[in-house]
Each structure stands twice: as structure tokens, then as C-alpha cells.
Protein 1
Amino acid sequence: MSEKLWIFDTTLRDGEQVPGCQLNTKEKIVVAKALEELGVDIIEAGFPISSPGDFNSVLEISKAVSNPIICALSRAVEKDIEVAADSLKYAKKGRIHTGIGVSPYHIQYKLRSNPDDIVERAVRAVKYAKSFVEDVEFYAEDAGRAEHEFLARIVEAAIKAGATVVNIPDTTGYCLPEQYGAIIRYLKENVSNIDKAIISTHCHNDLGMATANTLAGVQHGARQAELTINGIGERAGNTSMEEVVMAIKCHHDIDVHTNIRTEKIYETSRLISKLMNMPVQPNKAIVGRNAFAHSSGIHQDGVLKHRENYEIIDPKEVGVHESSIVLTARSGRAALKFHLDSLGVELEGDALREVYEDFLLLADSKRDIGPKDLLSLVGKYLDDS
Ligand code: KIV
Ligand code: ZN
């Protein structure tokens, strides 16, 4: 049996930081329940110190949801940790996620500090969080640009202080997959107590590498992945859950499994898009409008002969009813016949060829060809019969 990859959803925290995507408590509860249905293991419900509304959302989500672990974010600051702990008081399983910047940029320019002080603050924060909850996740912010040796040092110290999960964020989406994978490998090889904690990925998408980096992390030993639905998040977004889950499902050599009920992916994606007022790009992998739409003649003919000629995923697996054969000026006769058949019009040979020529003339001047257009094109054949 393969090892489990823990799915940590941060749609309600990192995802919700996107301008215009804010949700109220009621809406967040709807999302949290949908995430529970989807089968996520951990819901990062918010950053409670950030506002009374966010505090209240974490509190209410903790009451409304029972299976997933509920996680609250805090900086490595006592007050943050106390408020996070308070917001989790009704959670059946609560986790505090605390941490600090670890790259030279963050240490020098953001925190105006030095490496020794950063390690000390990290240890203090983890120990303090541990005095409230058993499950403490430590994040090493901007780990993607950190010095490996320092990263290993702070991760080791955080685990010694009681961290159950160590999160290695590529906060700025800087890494290439090989680099991110190498960071995880380095930690596995150089942190003496690494087996006492789960390593987590948390990748941003600034270079479009978030999914690839997450998978590289998993291939090198990470066993938790931090993800959002539709990949929403700061700037270019976080790693998209649907992409990671389906990549793992398609590639058995990535020897992990998740508990995600994949057939709920599409409806969850729609829900988030609607509530957050954030459209999904049509060509978005897995959940975009065109993800299972075939429009060129060669592809349409191939997919009509055998679905797997051009589809690596059965759309039903992610909750999409069926793939679509779109009629455009690039469509072939097979696609036209498919649509005519579905309208109950069976044409073959010369008749089909003739209608196809008329169809191409129409398709060159009109983007969307629908059933009405088709029926008018075949009108004379219907009249003759
Ligand atoms: O990207 C990041 O580093 C974060 C941390 C707060 C976990 O979101
Ligand atoms: Zn982030």
C-alpha cells in the first residue's frame, strides 16, 4: 500500500487573501463543509489575529466541521498564537500553524534580525503553540530562497521544540522543480530528527511551477501538500489542488495516495469560483471549461473513435458529466456527424459531404454553431425525406 499524502487546503486562508475574494463567515462555512465532503485532511480556516471576522470564521468552522483538522495561522508572535489557540477552542482536532521568514531577504530586510535570533523566535513560538495544542505546524517562510544549511538548522530546532509538521514554503514561487525537490531531499538527509515530523510543501505559482514543484517535493519525501481549489492565492496563486490530486492519480510511480473524492472536484471548483467571484480560466487544467472540450477535426475524430486517444482522464472521475465535441471551422466530418446523429439526423456519403461544405462556410463566419444552425443546414434533407 502506498503512503498517504495529507491534503491541506488553504483556500480559506492563503486563497482568501486575494483582493475581491473575501468571504463572510456564513460563506466560509459553506466552503468548509464542501471541503470536508471533498475529503481534505486539514482545512486552514484563517488567520485569526488578522480581524475579528476571521477569528469568528475559524471559531464557527471549528463547530461546523468534524472530520478534517482545523488549522489557524499565526506569526511567531505570542499574541497571534494565543488568539489562534482561542479560535480553535471548539475544534475536535485543532492545529496551530506558526512560523517565521528564513531567507536572507526576510531575515535582513523584513525582520531586520539575524539567524540566531530567528531560530530562537521560531523555537519559542513552537513551544508556546505547543502549550495550547498538541498539533503544531512550523512554517519556514521563503524557504525556497533560504540557505539550505540554515533551513536545516531551523527545521531541526522546530521539530525538537515539538513541531509535528514542518512546512517548506516557496513563498515567492521562485524555485524550479529540481531545486524545490533538492531542498526537500537535503532536509531528509541533513535534519537528524526529520522522521519525527511530516514535511509539507507550500508552493506559489509566480513562474507557473507550483504544481510541478509540489510534485517534486512529494517525490523527495514530503507527505503533506498545501493547496487551494482552482489554485487561487496571493499574486499568481497557490498550487492547485485538482492538478496535484489528478497528477498523482494518473502517475502511479508517484507512490502516494490521497483521500480526495475526485468526483467532487468539479462542483467544488464551481462553488469556489462563484462564491469568490473569481472566474476559472477556460483552459485551466482539470476544471476549466475547455479541459474536456475537443475542437479540432483530428482530435475530434480520434476521441470519437476511442476516448483515450486524446483524454488522459475520464471526465466523470472529476465530476464532469462528459467531454464535449465543439463545432468550429476546424471541426471535421466525424464531429459534424456526431452532432447530427445526436439530433436524430443520420446522414452518410454525399449528403454528409455536402452538408459539411455548407457547415464550413457557416463556421468560418460564426463562432458558435448550435443545434438550430445544424437543423437549418440539413433542412433540405429533412424536407426531402
Ligand atoms: O507562502 C507562505 O510562505 C505562506 C506561509 C504563511 C505559510 O503562506
Ligand atoms: Zn503562501
Protein 2
Amino acid sequence: MSDIETLPANETNTTPIASDGALVIEDLHASVDGKEILRGVNLQITKGRVHALMGPNGSGKSTRANVLMGHPKYQVTRGRIRFKGQDILGLSTDERARLGIFLAFQYPISVPGVPVANFLRASMKAMRGNELPVREFRKLLRGQMELLKVDEAFVSRYLNEGFSGGEKKKNEILQMALLRPEIAVLDETDSGLDIDALRTVSEGVNALLGPDMGVLIITHYQRILNYITPDVVHVLVNGRVVRTGGRELVERLETDGYDPIIREVGENGHQSS
Ligand code: ADP
Ligand code: MG
């Protein structure tokens, strides 16, 4: 599969539109505690598009998201991740964030003593390098709070402490709305959400979509993809992207499950036919 552009960074002007501003993952191998989880992932996240990354439990979806942000637990043993003409593997997590990459965690951490609003303001400051005037920040925050249907009390509460699944996810989307990343990765944003929260969170994401942002929605289920329509669908099995296609791939997975694809590609994730 060669939807991966291999042009050097200094030739970006001649790169086809599809790769302009794309985040390109090439032959990525990564291990945790000496165990190889990602075994040659190729994936391109293009701005202006919604990508879905689907796959069975344990196929390496969260590992891939964590490696993208530079989580210290994961060792990259081979491959590259390029964004804006740089190999980002040499960058720290906050350098990656400042470059415009955002990850909404599958399991967000709680920070007792830090109210949501303060956290959001501090994140914005860290990203922009300067502080937004309080009045402006409040206005921006209020608009997003309305969209995500969270009330005043929510942003005064301590970050993720005692939050329901839905509140944690709304907080992540709130953060994304304020930070306006160029590449956003949402890891199982649908997990633990009831149908109303799922709809609200999806509306929040949809409202942010546009030509300047590429999104990767990591999910096990079709559910969230009924609300956020993917342009491209990737299937990860055993640490490799074994299928890339359009929407129809989601429907096929929903009807048949992952088994037929796993059988087709064999245990190693290698195409057997
Ligand atoms: P997914 O998100 O697709 O369900 P993960 O990336 O979370 O999959 O996990 C992939 C594999 O890596 C699993 O077999 C899991 O047990 C293993 N793994 C993930 N994180 C760790 C860790 N910190 N220590 C040991 N094994 C891990
Ligand atoms: Mg996961």
C-alpha cells in the first residue's frame, strides 16, 4: 500500500495536495517492556480529513497514539514519524504539542487541586507562549462550554476528579477546542459514553472540523463513526495497518467483525493471498 509519500522535506512544494501538512508514520516499530507491539505501522493523517483507526482489543491502537506523543514507556525501535518536514521522534512531548499535535487519552489522569478552567488556561499559555487576556479566554471558553453542554460548575471542578466517563471526554474536547491542534488523535473517545454524551461530544468534534485540522479517531466500535463521518478508515491488526479504505470498511467490520480480516492477513499481519 503506498499512500505514503516519501518525498524529502525540502520538496514539500511539489508534494501532492493529499500530503500537504500531513503527519506521516513510516514503518513504525515500537516496544513496551521489551515486547514488540507495533510491527511496521504505515499511516498518513491528512489535514482536512477524518481518519478512523479501528482494530481488535490489544492490536496496538493506544500504543500507536502514545508513541505519537512521545510517551516515555514506549521504545521506538524502527521507523519515522514526520510532520511539517521534521522527524518528530526526536522531539519532546511538549515540542510535539506546540507543533500542533494533540492527543485525547483513553484514560485521562486526574489532577486534584487544579480546576478545569485553570488547567485549560495554562495549556493555552503553554502552547501559545503568551497568556490570553482573562476576558478573551472566558469568552472563548463560554462558547465552547455551550457547544459541549457543560455548565459553569464543571469548569470550577478539579481536573477529572470524580468525573464521569462523559465529563472526562467532554473536558478533552474542550481542551482540543481551545488549543486548535492541526492533528488531533482521539483514543476511544466513545468509550464509557451514553448515547446523549456521545452525540454531544461528536457534535463538539464536528464543529471543529475544517481544512486546517486532521483527525484520527481511534475506536473499537462503529458507534462514534455514525456521528463523525470518516473519510478514510484504517484497520490495525497485530501491530500493523492491514487495511485502508473508505466508509464501507466500517460497515463491513460491523457486520462481519474482525475475524475475516485477521484470517485473510494471517497471524503475522502479512497478506496470505
Ligand atoms: P489497543 O489500544 O489496540 O487495545 P494497546 O496499544 O493498549 O491496544 O495494547 C497493545 C498490546 O500491548 C497489548 O497486548 C497490551 O497488553 C500491551 N501493552 C500495552 N501497554 C503495555 C504496558 N505498559 N506494559 C506491557 N504491555 C503493554
Ligand atoms: Mg486502547
